[in-house]
Amino acid sequence: MQHQISSLSSESYAASEFINIMPVTCSIRYHHFQVSHMQHQISSLSSELHASLDIITVK
Fold first, then answer.
1. CB of 56 within 8 A of CB of 1?
2. Deepest of 3, 14, 20, 22, by most Cβ within 10 A of its Cβ?
């Protein structure tokens, strides 16, 4: 499980890096919508990650 979490966190980090680059490269509104949708996905992913980490520390 810890391995899953570490790969998950590196994925979310990579995705957030990607989001930082995207608005610069594409200023089109459609792409901006995609980016904001992705940011929402990442925030829910990170909250899931925190919950999983809490479970591990309790164990």
1. yes
2. 22
Please list, in sequence order, all residues whose beta carbon lies within 8 angstroms of the beta carbon of residue 26, skipping any fewer than 6 positions away. 32
Report CA-CA distances (Å) from 34 to 16, 38, 39, 44: 13, 6, 9, 16
CA distance 7 to 27: 30
Q: Note the pLDDT tens digit of each residue in 1-59.
A: 566 666 766 776 666 666 665 555 555 555 556 666 677 777 777 777 777 777 777 76
The pair phi, psi for residue 31, each rounded to 5°, is -65, -35
What's the residue count for the chain?
59
